[in-house]
Amino acid sequence: MGLRRTVWCGEVQASGVEVTVAGWVDATRDHGGLLFVDVRDRSGVVQVVVDPGAAPEVWEQARQWRGEWTVAVRGLVRERSAANVNPKLATGAVEIVPAEVAVYGRARPLPFQLDGAAAVEETTRLRYRYLDLRRPDLQANLRMRHRFTAAVRAHLDAAGFVEIETPTLTRSTPEGARDYLVPARMAPGRFFALPQSPQLYKQLLMIAGLERYYQIARCWRDEDLRADRQPEFTQVDIELSFVEAEDVMALAEGLVREACRAAAGVELQAPLPRMTYGEAMVRFGSDRPDLRVPLEIVEVGADLSGTAFQGFAQPLAAGGVVRALRVPGGAALTRRELDALTAEARNRGAAGLAWFLLGTEGEPAGPVAMRSPIAKFLAPEQRAALVERTGGAAGDALFLVAGPAPVAATVLGWLRLWAADRFELRRGAWRALWVTDFPLLEWDADAGRFVAVHHPFTAPHPDDLALLAGEPARVRALAYDLVVDGTEVGGGSIRIHDREVQSRLFAALRLSPEETADKFGFLLEALSYGAPPHGGIALGLDRLVMMLAGADSLRDVIAFPKTAQAGDPLTGAPAAVAERQLRELHLRADAVRT
User: Fold this and answer.
1) 415-458, pLDDT tens digit by residue?
2) Rounded Cα distance, 297 and 311, in Å
3) What is the spatial distance between Cα 516 and Cα 240, in angstroms, rounded to a whole number?
4) Residue 26: what are its φ and ψ, rounded to 5°?
5) Chosen CATH of 9-105 out of 2.60.130.10, 3.30.70.270, 3.50.30.60, 2.40.50.140
6) Once rounded to an integer, what is the mean pLDDT over residues 57-71?
7) Cβ atoms within 10 A of the Cβ of 55, count?
8) At residue 96, does pLDDT exceed 60?
9) Do residues 580 and 563 touch, judged by C-beta distance below 8 A?
10) At what angle do helices 245-264 and 136-158 cross, to 10 degrees?
11) Mean pLDDT of the chain
12) What are the residue boundaries of the structural domains of the chain, listed by start?
Protein backbone atom coordinates (compact mmCIF):
# COMPACT_ATOMS: atom_id res chain seq x y z
CA MET A 1 0.00 0.00 0.00
CA GLY A 2 2.98 2.34 0.36
CA LEU A 3 2.59 4.66 3.32
CA ARG A 4 1.05 2.98 6.35
CA ARG A 5 -0.99 4.89 8.91
CA THR A 6 0.62 5.30 12.33
CA VAL A 7 -2.00 7.53 13.97
CA TRP A 8 -5.61 8.59 13.44
CA CYS A 9 -6.10 12.12 12.08
CA GLY A 10 -8.17 13.25 15.05
CA GLU A 11 -5.57 12.01 17.53
CA VAL A 12 -2.50 13.89 16.24
CA GLN A 13 -1.28 15.89 19.25
CA ALA A 14 2.40 15.72 20.18
CA SER A 15 4.69 18.09 18.25
CA GLY A 16 8.14 17.02 17.09
CA VAL A 17 6.95 13.52 16.24
CA GLU A 18 6.88 11.96 12.76
CA VAL A 19 3.49 10.49 11.89
CA THR A 20 1.68 9.02 8.94
CA VAL A 21 -2.03 9.77 8.51
CA ALA A 22 -4.42 8.48 5.87
CA GLY A 23 -7.91 9.50 4.89
CA TRP A 24 -9.95 11.75 2.66
CA VAL A 25 -9.19 15.29 1.50
CA ASP A 26 -11.72 17.34 3.44
CA ALA A 27 -10.70 20.76 2.08
CA THR A 28 -7.81 22.55 0.36
CA ARG A 29 -6.82 26.23 0.65
CA ASP A 30 -4.06 27.99 -1.29
CA HIS A 31 -2.83 30.95 0.79
CA GLY A 32 -0.21 32.84 -1.15
CA GLY A 33 2.10 29.99 -1.93
CA LEU A 34 1.37 27.82 1.11
CA LEU A 35 -1.11 25.02 0.55
CA PHE A 36 -3.31 24.00 3.49
CA VAL A 37 -4.97 20.59 3.24
CA ASP A 38 -7.41 19.18 5.79
CA VAL A 39 -7.21 15.38 5.87
CA ARG A 40 -10.13 13.54 7.45
CA ASP A 41 -10.68 10.03 8.71
CA ARG A 42 -13.35 8.62 11.00
CA SER A 43 -11.67 10.14 14.07
CA GLY A 44 -11.56 13.74 12.89
CA VAL A 45 -9.49 16.22 10.85
CA VAL A 46 -5.86 17.31 10.89
CA GLN A 47 -4.27 20.15 8.94
CA VAL A 48 -1.35 19.56 6.57
CA VAL A 49 0.76 22.57 5.48
CA VAL A 50 2.70 22.21 2.21
CA ASP A 51 5.53 24.70 1.51
CA PRO A 52 6.74 24.58 -2.15
CA GLY A 53 10.15 25.85 -1.12
CA ALA A 54 10.68 23.17 1.52
CA ALA A 55 9.16 20.21 -0.33
CA PRO A 56 8.76 20.90 -4.06
CA GLU A 57 7.91 17.30 -4.99
CA VAL A 58 5.21 17.11 -2.35
CA TRP A 59 3.91 20.49 -3.50
CA GLU A 60 3.57 19.30 -7.11
CA GLN A 61 1.55 16.31 -5.99
CA ALA A 62 -0.59 17.96 -3.32
CA ARG A 63 -1.59 20.94 -5.47
CA GLN A 64 -3.52 18.51 -7.71
CA TRP A 65 -5.59 17.10 -4.84
CA ARG A 66 -9.33 17.66 -4.84
CA GLY A 67 -12.05 17.09 -2.32
CA GLU A 68 -12.69 13.45 -1.26
CA TRP A 69 -9.52 12.04 -2.80
CA THR A 70 -8.06 9.33 -0.56
CA VAL A 71 -4.48 10.16 0.40
CA ALA A 72 -1.71 9.44 2.90
CA VAL A 73 0.73 11.92 4.40
CA ARG A 74 4.00 11.25 6.25
CA GLY A 75 5.50 14.21 8.03
CA LEU A 76 6.56 16.01 11.18
CA VAL A 77 4.01 17.37 13.64
CA ARG A 78 4.59 20.97 14.76
CA GLU A 79 2.71 23.45 16.87
CA ARG A 80 0.65 26.10 15.13
CA SER A 81 1.31 29.73 15.80
CA ALA A 82 -0.93 31.22 18.48
CA ALA A 83 -2.84 33.22 15.85
CA ASN A 84 -3.64 30.07 13.85
CA VAL A 85 -4.86 27.80 16.66
CA ASN A 86 -8.36 26.45 15.90
CA PRO A 87 -10.14 25.69 19.19
CA LYS A 88 -13.00 23.99 17.34
CA LEU A 89 -10.76 21.06 16.35
CA ALA A 90 -9.23 18.47 18.66
CA THR A 91 -6.06 18.85 16.55
CA GLY A 92 -6.42 22.61 16.24
CA ALA A 93 -3.12 23.37 18.03
CA VAL A 94 -0.90 21.34 15.68
CA GLU A 95 -0.30 20.69 11.99
CA ILE A 96 1.72 18.31 9.86
CA VAL A 97 4.62 19.37 7.61
CA PRO A 98 4.75 16.61 4.97
CA ALA A 99 7.86 14.85 3.74
CA GLU A 100 6.03 12.27 1.60
CA VAL A 101 2.50 11.88 0.27
CA ALA A 102 0.56 9.28 -1.70
CA VAL A 103 -2.74 9.19 -3.56
CA TYR A 104 -4.80 6.02 -3.28
CA GLY A 105 -8.00 7.06 -5.00
CA ARG A 106 -9.17 10.02 -7.08
CA ALA A 107 -12.79 11.17 -6.71
CA ARG A 108 -15.10 12.40 -9.43
CA PRO A 109 -17.04 15.63 -8.70
CA LEU A 110 -19.57 14.71 -6.01
CA PRO A 111 -23.32 14.63 -6.72
CA PHE A 112 -23.72 16.82 -3.61
CA GLN A 113 -21.42 18.56 -1.17
CA LEU A 114 -21.08 16.71 2.10
CA ASP A 115 -21.20 19.83 4.26
CA GLY A 116 -24.59 20.70 2.79
CA ALA A 117 -25.93 17.16 2.46
CA ALA A 118 -28.64 17.61 5.09
CA ALA A 119 -30.48 19.92 2.68
CA VAL A 120 -30.20 17.49 -0.26
CA GLU A 121 -33.27 15.48 -1.27
CA GLU A 122 -33.20 12.23 0.69
CA THR A 123 -33.55 9.86 -2.25
CA THR A 124 -30.39 11.38 -3.75
CA ARG A 125 -28.49 10.94 -0.51
CA LEU A 126 -29.64 7.31 -0.25
CA ARG A 127 -28.66 6.71 -3.88
CA TYR A 128 -25.11 7.70 -2.86
CA ARG A 129 -25.33 6.43 0.71
CA TYR A 130 -21.61 5.60 0.82
CA LEU A 131 -20.96 9.32 0.34
CA ASP A 132 -23.70 10.39 2.72
CA LEU A 133 -22.17 8.17 5.41
CA ARG A 134 -18.91 10.11 5.22
CA ARG A 135 -20.65 12.91 7.12
CA PRO A 136 -19.36 13.10 10.71
CA ASP A 137 -22.86 13.28 12.23
CA LEU A 138 -23.99 10.03 10.59
CA GLN A 139 -20.75 8.31 11.52
CA ALA A 140 -21.23 9.48 15.10
CA ASN A 141 -24.72 7.95 15.07
CA LEU A 142 -23.38 4.58 13.94
CA ARG A 143 -20.65 4.65 16.59
CA MET A 144 -23.31 5.43 19.19
CA ARG A 145 -25.29 2.45 17.93
CA HIS A 146 -22.19 0.30 18.35
CA ARG A 147 -21.68 1.50 21.93
CA PHE A 148 -25.33 0.76 22.71
CA THR A 149 -25.21 -2.81 21.40
CA ALA A 150 -21.83 -3.44 23.04
CA ALA A 151 -23.28 -2.33 26.39
CA VAL A 152 -26.31 -4.57 25.86
CA ARG A 153 -24.14 -7.60 25.21
CA ALA A 154 -21.90 -6.90 28.19
CA HIS A 155 -24.84 -6.36 30.55
CA LEU A 156 -26.69 -9.50 29.49
CA ASP A 157 -23.56 -11.63 29.45
CA ALA A 158 -22.86 -10.60 33.05
CA ALA A 159 -26.45 -11.58 33.91
CA GLY A 160 -25.97 -15.12 32.58
CA PHE A 161 -27.73 -14.80 29.23
CA VAL A 162 -26.79 -16.77 26.12
CA GLU A 163 -26.87 -15.09 22.71
CA ILE A 164 -28.64 -17.43 20.27
CA GLU A 165 -29.56 -16.86 16.63
CA THR A 166 -33.00 -17.95 15.46
CA PRO A 167 -34.05 -18.67 11.86
CA THR A 168 -34.79 -15.91 9.36
CA LEU A 169 -36.66 -18.36 7.16
CA THR A 170 -39.72 -19.53 9.07
CA ARG A 171 -43.44 -20.08 8.52
CA SER A 172 -46.09 -17.39 8.28
CA THR A 173 -48.10 -17.02 11.50
CA PRO A 174 -50.66 -14.30 12.32
CA GLU A 175 -48.78 -11.73 14.41
CA GLY A 176 -50.55 -8.50 13.47
CA ALA A 177 -48.62 -7.18 10.45
CA ARG A 178 -48.16 -8.41 6.90
CA ASP A 179 -45.35 -10.92 6.36
CA TYR A 180 -42.57 -10.76 3.82
CA LEU A 181 -42.82 -14.06 1.95
CA VAL A 182 -40.01 -16.07 0.36
CA PRO A 183 -40.90 -18.74 -2.23
CA ALA A 184 -39.44 -22.15 -1.52
CA ARG A 185 -37.84 -23.56 -4.69
CA MET A 186 -37.74 -27.11 -3.34
CA ALA A 187 -41.38 -27.01 -2.23
CA PRO A 188 -43.35 -25.56 -5.15
CA GLY A 189 -46.31 -23.43 -4.13
CA ARG A 190 -45.06 -23.06 -0.55
CA PHE A 191 -43.43 -20.12 1.14
CA PHE A 192 -41.17 -19.19 3.98
CA ALA A 193 -41.85 -15.96 5.87
CA LEU A 194 -39.29 -13.55 7.26
CA PRO A 195 -40.00 -13.32 10.99
CA GLN A 196 -41.81 -10.30 12.41
CA SER A 197 -40.09 -11.28 15.66
CA PRO A 198 -38.42 -14.41 17.07
CA GLN A 199 -41.39 -14.80 19.44
CA LEU A 200 -42.17 -18.49 19.03
CA TYR A 201 -38.55 -19.56 18.73
CA LYS A 202 -37.55 -17.86 21.97
CA GLN A 203 -40.44 -19.53 23.75
CA LEU A 204 -39.27 -22.86 22.37
CA LEU A 205 -35.81 -22.08 23.73
CA MET A 206 -37.34 -21.68 27.17
CA ILE A 207 -39.06 -25.05 26.81
CA ALA A 208 -35.67 -26.40 25.72
CA GLY A 209 -34.21 -25.37 29.09
CA LEU A 210 -31.84 -22.58 27.98
CA GLU A 211 -33.59 -20.33 30.56
CA ARG A 212 -31.87 -17.06 29.61
CA TYR A 213 -31.74 -16.08 25.92
CA TYR A 214 -31.10 -12.86 24.04
CA GLN A 215 -30.50 -11.85 20.47
CA ILE A 216 -29.81 -8.63 18.56
CA ALA A 217 -32.55 -9.77 16.22
CA ARG A 218 -33.39 -8.69 12.69
CA CYS A 219 -37.14 -8.52 12.09
CA TRP A 220 -39.32 -7.78 9.06
CA ARG A 221 -42.82 -6.33 8.68
CA ASP A 222 -44.43 -5.43 5.37
CA GLU A 223 -46.36 -2.35 6.51
CA ASP A 224 -46.67 1.32 5.64
CA LEU A 225 -43.63 3.27 6.73
CA ARG A 226 -43.01 6.51 8.62
CA ALA A 227 -40.06 8.32 10.19
CA ASP A 228 -39.76 5.83 13.07
CA ARG A 229 -40.59 2.66 11.13
CA GLN A 230 -38.61 0.60 8.60
CA PRO A 231 -39.56 -2.64 6.81
CA GLU A 232 -36.54 -4.36 8.37
CA PHE A 233 -35.54 -3.39 11.86
CA THR A 234 -33.50 -4.55 14.83
CA GLN A 235 -34.66 -5.34 18.33
CA VAL A 236 -32.95 -6.47 21.52
CA ASP A 237 -34.89 -9.67 22.06
CA ILE A 238 -34.88 -11.20 25.55
CA GLU A 239 -36.58 -14.20 27.17
CA LEU A 240 -36.07 -15.83 30.57
CA SER A 241 -37.67 -18.63 32.58
CA PHE A 242 -39.14 -18.96 36.07
CA VAL A 243 -39.89 -15.25 36.33
CA GLU A 244 -42.77 -12.84 36.89
CA ALA A 245 -43.42 -9.49 35.26
CA GLU A 246 -41.49 -7.60 37.95
CA ASP A 247 -38.36 -9.62 37.21
CA VAL A 248 -38.46 -8.85 33.48
CA MET A 249 -39.14 -5.14 34.01
CA ALA A 250 -36.30 -4.84 36.54
CA LEU A 251 -33.89 -6.54 34.13
CA ALA A 252 -34.95 -4.41 31.14
CA GLU A 253 -34.87 -1.20 33.15
CA GLY A 254 -31.32 -1.83 34.31
CA LEU A 255 -30.25 -2.83 30.81
CA VAL A 256 -31.68 0.28 29.12
CA ARG A 257 -30.27 2.53 31.84
CA GLU A 258 -26.77 1.08 31.39
CA ALA A 259 -26.88 1.11 27.57
CA CYS A 260 -28.13 4.72 27.40
CA ARG A 261 -25.41 5.80 29.80
CA ALA A 262 -22.69 3.97 27.86
CA ALA A 263 -23.88 5.10 24.43
CA ALA A 264 -24.69 8.76 25.07
CA GLY A 265 -24.25 9.65 28.72
CA VAL A 266 -28.02 9.78 29.22
CA GLU A 267 -29.19 9.09 32.76
CA LEU A 268 -32.65 7.62 33.29
CA GLN A 269 -34.67 8.11 36.44
CA ALA A 270 -34.40 5.20 38.86
CA PRO A 271 -36.68 3.48 39.48
CA LEU A 272 -39.01 4.28 36.60
CA PRO A 273 -42.59 5.18 37.50
CA ARG A 274 -45.43 2.76 36.74
CA MET A 275 -48.87 3.49 35.32
CA THR A 276 -51.69 1.15 34.35
CA TYR A 277 -53.13 1.23 30.86
CA GLY A 278 -56.46 2.42 32.25
CA GLU A 279 -54.89 5.32 34.12
CA ALA A 280 -52.82 6.34 31.10
CA MET A 281 -55.86 6.42 28.83
CA VAL A 282 -57.92 8.50 31.28
CA ARG A 283 -55.20 11.00 32.20
CA PHE A 284 -53.33 11.29 28.91
CA GLY A 285 -55.52 9.73 26.22
CA SER A 286 -52.70 7.42 25.14
CA ASP A 287 -51.08 4.15 26.17
CA ARG A 288 -47.70 5.79 25.53
CA PRO A 289 -48.02 9.10 27.41
CA ASP A 290 -45.50 11.84 26.80
CA LEU A 291 -44.71 13.00 30.34
CA ARG A 292 -42.80 16.02 29.04
CA VAL A 293 -46.18 17.66 28.38
CA PRO A 294 -47.61 19.11 31.63
CA LEU A 295 -51.26 18.69 30.60
CA GLU A 296 -53.74 16.15 31.91
CA ILE A 297 -57.24 15.16 30.88
CA VAL A 298 -59.86 15.33 33.64
CA GLU A 299 -63.32 13.84 34.09
CA VAL A 300 -66.00 16.54 34.28
CA GLY A 301 -69.16 14.48 33.73
CA ALA A 302 -70.19 14.73 37.38
CA ASP A 303 -69.83 18.52 37.27
CA LEU A 304 -72.18 18.68 34.27
CA SER A 305 -74.85 16.34 35.64
CA GLY A 306 -78.28 17.70 34.84
CA THR A 307 -77.00 20.09 32.19
CA ALA A 308 -79.48 21.41 29.65
CA PHE A 309 -76.92 21.09 26.87
CA GLN A 310 -77.86 17.94 24.98
CA GLY A 311 -74.36 17.54 23.54
CA PHE A 312 -73.31 16.61 27.07
CA ALA A 313 -76.57 15.27 28.53
CA GLN A 314 -77.21 12.61 25.88
CA PRO A 315 -73.75 10.97 25.98
CA LEU A 316 -73.87 10.92 29.79
CA ALA A 317 -77.33 9.32 29.74
CA ALA A 318 -75.99 6.66 27.35
CA GLY A 319 -73.21 5.71 29.75
CA GLY A 320 -70.53 7.83 28.12
CA VAL A 321 -68.16 10.36 29.60
CA VAL A 322 -67.36 14.05 29.36
CA ARG A 323 -63.66 14.81 29.65
CA ALA A 324 -61.81 18.10 29.51
CA LEU A 325 -58.33 19.36 28.68
CA ARG A 326 -56.98 22.71 29.81
CA VAL A 327 -54.58 24.39 27.35
CA PRO A 328 -52.55 27.24 28.86
CA GLY A 329 -52.55 30.24 26.55
CA GLY A 330 -55.26 28.66 24.43
CA ALA A 331 -57.50 31.71 24.66
CA ALA A 332 -55.26 33.22 21.96
CA LEU A 333 -56.45 30.67 19.38
CA THR A 334 -58.27 32.14 16.42
CA ARG A 335 -61.74 31.09 15.34
CA ARG A 336 -60.21 29.50 12.25
CA GLU A 337 -57.93 27.38 14.44
CA LEU A 338 -60.83 26.40 16.69
CA ASP A 339 -62.93 25.37 13.68
CA ALA A 340 -60.03 23.32 12.33
CA LEU A 341 -59.63 21.56 15.67
CA THR A 342 -63.35 20.79 15.77
CA ALA A 343 -63.22 19.34 12.26
CA GLU A 344 -60.24 17.15 13.19
CA ALA A 345 -62.01 15.96 16.34
CA ARG A 346 -64.92 14.81 14.17
CA ASN A 347 -62.50 13.06 11.83
CA ARG A 348 -61.22 11.15 14.85
CA GLY A 349 -64.67 9.94 15.85
CA ALA A 350 -66.08 12.63 18.15
CA ALA A 351 -69.50 14.18 17.64
CA GLY A 352 -67.87 17.55 18.16
CA LEU A 353 -65.42 19.55 20.24
CA ALA A 354 -66.68 21.99 22.84
CA TRP A 355 -64.36 24.88 23.64
CA PHE A 356 -64.33 27.65 26.23
CA LEU A 357 -61.92 30.58 26.10
CA LEU A 358 -61.22 31.98 29.55
CA GLY A 359 -60.79 35.66 30.35
CA THR A 360 -61.56 37.93 33.27
CA GLU A 361 -64.50 40.10 34.10
CA GLY A 362 -63.61 43.67 34.96
CA GLU A 363 -60.28 43.96 36.78
CA PRO A 364 -57.45 41.55 35.91
CA ALA A 365 -57.93 39.85 39.28
CA GLY A 366 -61.67 39.53 38.75
CA PRO A 367 -63.61 36.28 38.31
CA VAL A 368 -62.90 34.09 35.29
CA ALA A 369 -65.23 34.64 32.34
CA MET A 370 -66.04 32.15 29.58
CA ARG A 371 -66.43 32.82 25.89
CA SER A 372 -68.06 29.94 24.01
CA PRO A 373 -71.11 29.31 21.80
CA ILE A 374 -72.42 26.87 24.42
CA ALA A 375 -71.53 28.74 27.61
CA LYS A 376 -75.11 30.06 27.82
CA PHE A 377 -76.41 26.46 28.14
CA LEU A 378 -74.44 25.87 31.33
CA ALA A 379 -75.58 27.06 34.74
CA PRO A 380 -73.21 29.47 36.54
CA GLU A 381 -72.30 26.79 39.07
CA GLN A 382 -71.46 24.37 36.24
CA ARG A 383 -69.18 26.91 34.57
CA ALA A 384 -67.48 27.58 37.89
CA ALA A 385 -67.08 23.83 38.50
CA LEU A 386 -65.44 23.37 35.08
CA VAL A 387 -62.90 26.08 35.82
CA GLU A 388 -62.15 24.68 39.27
CA ARG A 389 -61.92 21.04 38.13
CA THR A 390 -59.52 21.85 35.28
CA GLY A 391 -57.51 24.49 37.14
CA GLY A 392 -58.38 27.00 34.42
CA ALA A 393 -57.23 30.62 34.54
CA ALA A 394 -57.58 33.69 32.41
CA GLY A 395 -55.83 33.16 29.07
CA ASP A 396 -56.49 29.40 29.00
CA ALA A 397 -58.78 27.37 26.77
CA LEU A 398 -60.84 24.40 27.92
CA PHE A 399 -61.69 21.68 25.41
CA LEU A 400 -64.40 19.10 26.16
CA VAL A 401 -65.31 15.87 24.38
CA ALA A 402 -68.46 13.90 25.20
CA GLY A 403 -69.13 10.32 24.12
CA PRO A 404 -67.74 6.82 24.60
CA ALA A 405 -64.63 6.77 26.77
CA PRO A 406 -62.32 5.46 23.99
CA VAL A 407 -63.37 8.29 21.67
CA ALA A 408 -62.83 10.95 24.34
CA ALA A 409 -59.40 9.51 25.09
CA THR A 410 -58.38 9.38 21.43
CA VAL A 411 -59.44 12.93 20.62
CA LEU A 412 -58.14 14.63 23.76
CA GLY A 413 -54.93 12.59 23.64
CA TRP A 414 -54.32 13.91 20.13
CA LEU A 415 -55.29 17.45 21.16
CA ARG A 416 -52.88 17.32 24.11
CA LEU A 417 -49.94 16.67 21.78
CA TRP A 418 -51.17 19.25 19.29
CA ALA A 419 -51.27 21.87 22.05
CA ALA A 420 -47.76 20.89 23.17
CA ASP A 421 -46.49 21.67 19.66
CA ARG A 422 -48.59 24.81 19.17
CA PHE A 423 -47.63 26.40 22.49
CA GLU A 424 -44.17 24.80 22.96
CA LEU A 425 -45.13 23.11 26.21
CA ARG A 426 -42.74 20.14 26.28
CA ARG A 427 -40.22 20.30 29.10
CA GLY A 428 -37.13 18.15 29.61
CA ALA A 429 -36.26 14.86 27.97
CA TRP A 430 -35.99 11.16 28.72
CA ARG A 431 -39.17 11.05 30.77
CA ALA A 432 -39.63 7.28 30.89
CA LEU A 433 -42.23 5.03 32.52
CA TRP A 434 -43.72 1.54 32.46
CA VAL A 435 -47.31 1.09 31.28
CA THR A 436 -48.87 -2.11 32.62
CA ASP A 437 -52.15 -4.06 32.78
CA PHE A 438 -53.06 -3.78 29.11
CA PRO A 439 -56.23 -5.42 27.83
CA LEU A 440 -55.48 -8.90 26.56
CA LEU A 441 -57.91 -8.63 23.63
CA GLU A 442 -59.66 -5.90 21.67
CA TRP A 443 -62.58 -6.00 19.27
CA ASP A 444 -61.74 -5.72 15.56
CA ALA A 445 -64.87 -4.47 13.82
CA ASP A 446 -63.50 -5.22 10.34
CA ALA A 447 -62.66 -8.82 11.23
CA GLY A 448 -65.78 -9.22 13.37
CA ARG A 449 -63.87 -10.86 16.22
CA PHE A 450 -61.50 -10.21 19.08
CA VAL A 451 -57.79 -9.92 18.31
CA ALA A 452 -54.74 -9.91 20.57
CA VAL A 453 -53.58 -6.47 21.69
CA HIS A 454 -49.95 -7.64 21.78
CA HIS A 455 -49.75 -11.21 20.45
CA PRO A 456 -51.73 -14.40 21.07
CA PHE A 457 -49.10 -15.89 23.39
CA THR A 458 -49.45 -13.25 26.11
CA ALA A 459 -50.62 -14.65 29.43
CA PRO A 460 -53.94 -13.40 30.82
CA HIS A 461 -53.99 -12.09 34.37
CA PRO A 462 -54.76 -15.09 36.61
CA ASP A 463 -57.61 -13.20 38.31
CA ASP A 464 -59.30 -12.64 34.94
CA LEU A 465 -58.92 -16.09 33.41
CA ALA A 466 -62.56 -17.00 34.13
CA LEU A 467 -63.68 -14.04 31.96
CA LEU A 468 -61.93 -15.29 28.84
CA ALA A 469 -64.90 -17.16 27.37
CA GLY A 470 -67.75 -14.81 28.33
CA GLU A 471 -66.26 -11.32 28.77
CA PRO A 472 -62.95 -11.29 26.88
CA ALA A 473 -62.80 -7.47 26.69
CA ARG A 474 -62.38 -7.34 30.48
CA VAL A 475 -59.38 -9.65 30.62
CA ARG A 476 -56.11 -7.97 31.56
CA ALA A 477 -52.80 -9.10 30.13
CA LEU A 478 -49.58 -9.68 32.02
CA ALA A 479 -48.01 -7.22 29.59
CA TYR A 480 -45.82 -4.16 30.00
CA ASP A 481 -44.51 -1.44 27.68
CA LEU A 482 -41.53 0.82 28.21
CA VAL A 483 -42.35 4.35 27.07
CA VAL A 484 -39.89 7.23 26.68
CA ASP A 485 -41.03 10.75 25.78
CA GLY A 486 -44.27 9.48 24.28
CA THR A 487 -42.61 6.73 22.23
CA GLU A 488 -42.91 3.03 22.89
CA VAL A 489 -39.33 1.73 22.94
CA GLY A 490 -40.01 -1.74 24.30
CA GLY A 491 -42.79 -4.17 24.98
CA GLY A 492 -43.11 -7.57 26.52
CA SER A 493 -45.19 -9.92 28.60
CA ILE A 494 -45.33 -13.08 30.61
CA ARG A 495 -46.15 -15.86 28.14
CA ILE A 496 -48.69 -18.64 28.33
CA HIS A 497 -46.88 -21.81 29.39
CA ASP A 498 -49.95 -24.00 29.87
CA ARG A 499 -51.26 -25.80 26.78
CA GLU A 500 -54.87 -25.71 27.96
CA VAL A 501 -54.79 -21.93 28.57
CA GLN A 502 -53.17 -21.37 25.18
CA SER A 503 -55.93 -23.40 23.52
CA ARG A 504 -58.57 -21.36 25.34
CA LEU A 505 -57.03 -18.15 24.06
CA PHE A 506 -56.96 -19.45 20.48
CA ALA A 507 -60.66 -20.26 20.90
CA ALA A 508 -61.38 -16.72 22.15
CA LEU A 509 -59.69 -15.46 18.98
CA ARG A 510 -62.10 -17.66 16.98
CA LEU A 511 -59.33 -19.71 15.46
CA SER A 512 -60.76 -23.01 14.29
CA PRO A 513 -59.21 -26.26 15.56
CA GLU A 514 -57.92 -26.87 12.05
CA GLU A 515 -56.30 -23.42 11.78
CA THR A 516 -54.86 -23.75 15.27
CA ALA A 517 -53.36 -27.13 14.47
CA ASP A 518 -52.01 -25.91 11.12
CA LYS A 519 -50.36 -22.70 12.35
CA PHE A 520 -49.58 -23.44 15.99
CA GLY A 521 -49.66 -27.21 16.38
CA PHE A 522 -45.90 -27.34 16.95
CA LEU A 523 -46.21 -24.82 19.80
CA LEU A 524 -49.07 -26.66 21.49
CA GLU A 525 -47.14 -29.89 21.25
CA ALA A 526 -44.06 -28.26 22.78
CA LEU A 527 -46.15 -26.88 25.64
CA SER A 528 -47.18 -30.42 26.52
CA TYR A 529 -43.60 -31.44 27.40
CA GLY A 530 -42.99 -29.54 30.64
CA ALA A 531 -42.90 -25.85 29.76
CA PRO A 532 -41.56 -23.49 32.46
CA PRO A 533 -43.25 -20.18 33.29
CA HIS A 534 -41.43 -17.61 31.20
CA GLY A 535 -41.56 -14.08 29.90
CA GLY A 536 -39.55 -11.53 28.05
CA ILE A 537 -39.35 -8.21 26.28
CA ALA A 538 -38.23 -6.75 22.96
CA LEU A 539 -36.53 -3.35 22.91
CA GLY A 540 -36.48 -1.29 19.72
CA LEU A 541 -32.77 -0.79 19.14
CA ASP A 542 -33.18 1.49 16.11
CA ARG A 543 -35.74 3.66 17.88
CA LEU A 544 -33.72 3.99 21.09
CA VAL A 545 -30.56 4.97 19.21
CA MET A 546 -32.56 7.46 17.13
CA MET A 547 -33.74 9.13 20.32
CA LEU A 548 -30.26 9.10 21.87
CA ALA A 549 -28.83 10.70 18.73
CA GLY A 550 -31.56 13.35 18.60
CA ALA A 551 -32.29 12.26 15.04
CA ASP A 552 -35.61 12.86 13.28
CA SER A 553 -35.69 9.55 11.40
CA LEU A 554 -34.61 5.94 11.83
CA ARG A 555 -32.82 6.34 8.52
CA ASP A 556 -30.22 8.49 10.28
CA VAL A 557 -29.12 5.63 12.56
CA ILE A 558 -29.25 2.74 10.07
CA ALA A 559 -26.34 2.27 7.68
CA PHE A 560 -28.39 1.33 4.62
CA PRO A 561 -32.07 2.14 5.21
CA LYS A 562 -35.07 1.99 2.90
CA THR A 563 -37.11 4.95 1.68
CA ALA A 564 -40.68 5.66 2.77
CA GLN A 565 -41.75 3.49 -0.19
CA ALA A 566 -39.61 0.60 1.12
CA GLY A 567 -37.14 0.97 -1.72
CA ASP A 568 -33.33 1.10 -1.86
CA PRO A 569 -32.14 3.79 -4.32
CA LEU A 570 -28.56 2.59 -3.93
CA THR A 571 -29.07 -0.92 -5.32
CA GLY A 572 -32.41 -0.38 -7.04
CA ALA A 573 -34.16 -2.98 -4.86
CA PRO A 574 -36.83 -4.22 -5.13
CA ALA A 575 -36.14 -5.13 -8.75
CA ALA A 576 -37.41 -7.42 -11.45
CA VAL A 577 -35.75 -10.81 -11.77
CA ALA A 578 -35.08 -13.00 -14.77
CA GLU A 579 -37.88 -15.20 -16.09
CA ARG A 580 -35.60 -18.20 -15.50
CA GLN A 581 -35.50 -17.45 -11.77
CA LEU A 582 -39.28 -17.20 -11.65
CA ARG A 583 -39.69 -20.52 -13.45
CA GLU A 584 -37.35 -22.20 -10.97
CA LEU A 585 -39.61 -20.95 -8.18
CA HIS A 586 -42.78 -21.95 -10.05
CA LEU A 587 -43.91 -18.30 -10.09
CA ARG A 588 -45.25 -15.93 -12.70
CA ALA A 589 -45.00 -12.12 -12.46
CA ASP A 590 -48.34 -10.62 -13.50
CA ALA A 591 -47.59 -7.06 -12.34
CA VAL A 592 -46.81 -4.48 -15.00
CA ARG A 593 -43.08 -3.80 -15.14
CA THR A 594 -41.86 -0.22 -15.54
Assistant:
1) 999 999 999 999 999 999 999 999 999 998 888 899 999 999 99
2) 19
3) 25
4) -85, -40
5) 2.40.50.140
6) 96
7) 18
8) yes
9) no
10) 140
11) 94
12) 9-105, 293-422
